[in-house]
Amino acid sequence: MKNLTDITDKVKKNLIWKSIFRRDYRNTVRDRAMAVFGNVFLHLHPVQVRESAVKLRFTWGMGGITFFAFIILVITGVVLMFYYHPSVDQAYTDIKDLEFQVPYGVILRNLHRWGAHFMVIVVMIHMFRVFMTGSYKAPRQFNWGIGVFLLVLTFLLSFTGYLTPWDQLGFWAITVGTNMGAATPLLGYQGPFSELLHITPYNDVRFALLGGAQVAGNALLRSYIWHCVAIPLVATILMLVHFWRVRKDGGISKPQK
Amino acid sequence: MNPFIEIITQPDNIAIVIMIFMVSFFMVWAFQQAFQNDRLIASGLPVEGENDGFVDTFKPLVRIELIIALVVMVGLTIWSIAVDAPLEEIANPTITPNPAKAPWYFLGLQELLVYFDPWLAGVVLPSLIVVGLLAIPYIDINPKGNGYYTFSERKYAIIIFSFGFFVLWLLLIVIGVFFRGPGWLWYWPWQEWDHARVVYEPTKDLTSIIGIDSRSIPGIIIGGIVVLSYLVGGMVAPYLYWKKNNPELLKQLGMVRYITITFLFVTMMAIPIKMILRLVFLVKYVWIIPWFGGINF
Fold first, then answer.
1. Burial class (CB in 10 A: 0-12, 13-18, 19+), B223
2. pLDDT the model gives residue B1
3. ipTM of the assembly?
4. Which residue, B166, B195, B224, sits at the end of a domain?
């Protein structure tokens, strides 16, 4: 091999390379477009976007950062699941193991914890930005609504994750939080009108949330399933709709006067 | 250690400190851009971005996404190396921590428990927040300020939203995190938490102040009149005002929108009003309905 082009030729001009990358990239208009719609991940984007979409001062990148935080949380979360049993006997010691036995277990858990706080912060700032630029106005009203549900789901994702280490902090945070459920009008045993429906601590909203009358093994299992499977599933579907509608409603908003 | 330093350097509270800085930064940035655009509008010039064209996604947008992703990843990694997530003692139903706090983003709602019964603070008001947020695009019929920062073109929308977001949501969270100690009593950050401290606040119900038992029939009637006249008055007053000064606006809004807006606004303002009543005048309840398991406002 005499020079660099020979090496690149060797790498590129074979069946394997060509089967992965369908064509060369030459920085032409056509190739820049192909780079986007020929790629399953990038094709969430249109081939061209408004200038406002690349201006950091306009969007602050907050929606994208929220999504990126979600991805980090999914990845670290999946790895954490390899080391965790959602049972009262094992949950706490699993977290201890993460601290003392699992290689990089501490940083793994830290990333998940701080990533979660971070996502809650940036999703709120994203909502503030969308409000301040009036981007919920026509034709984007529906997508604002999807965003509100995603905001609530972000809170619920974090909330359900609180209990999983089975320590005092999570246990009492969940106790305080779910006690609110007991106060639901009609459906919580301490709420107004609940006597009319014969609601007791054993058949009210709180019971349904905890899978019991107090925070115990069933509550741990339920919060685990909500946290790792059910809410991420719903959130992912809503995110798809959210991103899809950003495009269908005309991309990142621009001044309409 | 100084209790103030101790409280803000608790691992989970570092997130709240980061939030305070980030939110303040972006609040200033948003309003700075809004005022900048307002000046442009006032002098008849196009606002920032009005004449924007298109750019390729690949690479300008993809590049900036990659850079942001890297910055976020590096930042989170540094945070994770520097600060370890706490793990407290194993869960023990027989030892109740004091104070027992909800997750930080719900502390604003927990703070409301000082002023409202749980069914209001924990269920009805949060539901109304969600409903109110969902309603925003449909009740805000102002066509201006679509797609750019501005303050002058949508003053009321921005003032109301900012009050809800910064004061009723974020400020109450900060109070819940940094200023509430054992017994949910107020502690300044430089005060040591004292678990034996008891504060006796001789709270009264509104009608008790004028000597009428709030649980007696006259007390219930008076309380009801106060609450309902606030609600109805608050919803009718803008109608009377606009009918005289801006009948066009009423026509544009229509009945359903008008009722939604005024109901949400009156309910939202009931929160600071009740807080002042409770904190300044030591009023516990304005209206007590002793039946149906107790519906107290």
1. buried
2. 59
3. 0.94
4. B195
